[in-house]
């Protein structure tokens, strides 16, 4: 029997597990970089579903792809292949270093697959009896990193708050400081099967790896026969002005994970790697019921076909300047940021000492001024809008954000 009760925000608290604390409004419609709530109020979206809505809301090409595929095939088990999955994999391998693709439903699942593959690859290629008796299964990650919410990925992520209450966690995992090559050199050994890193730490505060650091990590992995995994769940699919951030650095990983923007809002994740490494995932070693389903892959193919256009990627770099210049202008008036860190349209405005821990205050105030922003930890305001957001919408959204700042600091 259908329940025709009017949906309210209070109903969320009644029926949902309390691990989220969403805002007071309920959006019901989106178009491009604008959202409308139940009362018809318009919001400019600088959040993008946390770097997901890479082409904004209800992009016509994505809507068409979903409708067209929805009239053909929704789901096939992995006992059978499907055309959209094959086409998308071909596109991803043509555009990147990769030769093989594994599909999942999310970034956490893509990272789970990458970490499992790294351990299995080391187990096959460097068994203890051929590796001076050394078990090669240790994983090194970085403090303040974030790699997902499964038990394995939350253990690899470098933020203890996400592991609290879920111990004991899987072993063989250690953490060192990001951008500290000496610390990694002291930790890595022939026991290490993989190093996993975000080229730009996202949840940790929008902190880019330095060129010297990322090159040094690659060299240390090569020295110790460890795989280098790039978690590009947030930095991928054009977010930084390159299709994937590794291209900006000129450093190629052995495994790359991608999700979020990959489906433009439709759930899909993928792990990309080489033919040689992929050989370790033989039949029966890993799988995903919905991974590679025709609906998700059809939408993702439409996303990639648009984002891979040089005009779009160059536009990301131009829009970055509008954002950064606008935020710096706001800061000149209100003195709230230490710095504005950015790569393309992944932007973090780090609050200064006076405003430490107050990022959520700015988010809440912005919502009242009808602009949606994010936080990256307690002291960084984060912006991850659509990559094709109109320049006038950037200006209007920043004007609304300035009004929010003025109210917080008053």
From TrEMBL:
Primary localization class, coarse: cytoplasm
Cofactor: pyridoxal 5'-phosphate
Gene3D superfamilies found in the cross-reference section: Aspartate Aminotransferase, domain 1 (3.90.1150.10), Type I PLP-dependent aspartate aminotransferase-like (Major domain) (3.40.640.10)
EC number: 2.6.1.11
CDD domains, alphabetized: OAT_like
Note accompanying the cofactor annotation: Binds 1 pyridoxal phosphate per subunit.
PROSITE patterns named among the record's database cross-references: AA_TRANSFER_CLASS_3
GO cellular component assignments: cytoplasm
Binding-site positions, pyridoxal 5'-phosphate: 107-108, 146, 231-234, 289
Associated pathway: Amino-acid biosynthesis; L-arginine biosynthesis; N(2)-acetyl-L-ornithine from L-glutamate: step 4/4
The name this protein goes by in its record: Acetylornithine aminotransferase
Organism annotation: Alkalimarinus sediminis
């Amino acid at each position: 029997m259908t329940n025709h009760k009017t949906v309210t925000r209070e109903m969320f608290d009644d029926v949902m597990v309390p691990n989220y604390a969403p805002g007071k409004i309920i959006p019901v419609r989106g178009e491009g970089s604008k959202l409308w709530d139940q009362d018809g109020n318009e919001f400019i979206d600088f959040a993008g579903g946390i770097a997901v809505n890479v082409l904004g809301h209800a992009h016509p090409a994505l809507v068409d792809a979903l409708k067209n595929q929805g009239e053909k095939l929704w789901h096939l088990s992995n006992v059978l292949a499907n055309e959209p999955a094959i086409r998308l994999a071909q596109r991803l391998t043509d555009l990147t270093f990769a030769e093989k693709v594994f599909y999942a439903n999310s970034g956490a699942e893509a990272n789970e697959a990458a970490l499992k593959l790294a351990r299995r690859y080391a187990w096959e290629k460097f068994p203890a009896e051929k590796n001076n008796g050394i078990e090669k299964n240790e994983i090194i990650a970085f403090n303040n990193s974030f790699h997902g919410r499964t038990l394995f990925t939350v253990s690899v992520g470098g933020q203890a708050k996400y592991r609290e209450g879920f111990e004991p966690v899987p072993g063989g995992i250690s953490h060192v400081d990001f951008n500290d090559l000496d610390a990694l050199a002291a930790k890595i050994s022939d026991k290490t099967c993989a190093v996993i890193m975000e080229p730009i730490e996202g949840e940790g505060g929008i902190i880019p790896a330095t060129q010297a650091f990322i090159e040094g990590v690659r060299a240390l992995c090569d020295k110790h026969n460890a795989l280098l995994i790039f978690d590009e769940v947030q930095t991928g699919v054009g977010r930084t002005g390159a299709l994937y951030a590794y291209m900006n650095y000129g450093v190629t990983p052995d495994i790359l994970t991608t999700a979020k923007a990959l489906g433009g809002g439709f759930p899909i994740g993928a792990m990309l790697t080489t033919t040689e490494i992929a050989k370790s995932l033989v039949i029966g070693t890993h799988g995903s019921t919905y991974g590679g389903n025709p609906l998700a892959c059809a939408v993702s193919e439409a996303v990639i076909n648009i984002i891979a256009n040089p005009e779009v990627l160059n536009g990301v770099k131009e829009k970055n300047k509008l954002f950064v210049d606008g935020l710096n202008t706001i800061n000149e008036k209100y003195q709230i940021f230490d710095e504005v860190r950015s790569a393309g349209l992944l932007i973090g405005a780090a609050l200064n000492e006076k405003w430490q821990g107050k990022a959520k205050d700015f988010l809440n105030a912005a919502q009242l001024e009808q602009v949606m922003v994010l936080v990256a930890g307690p002291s960084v305001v984060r912006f991850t809008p659509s990559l094709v957001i109109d320049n006038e919408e950037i200006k209007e959204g920043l004007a609304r954000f300035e009004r929010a700042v003025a109210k917080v600091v008053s």
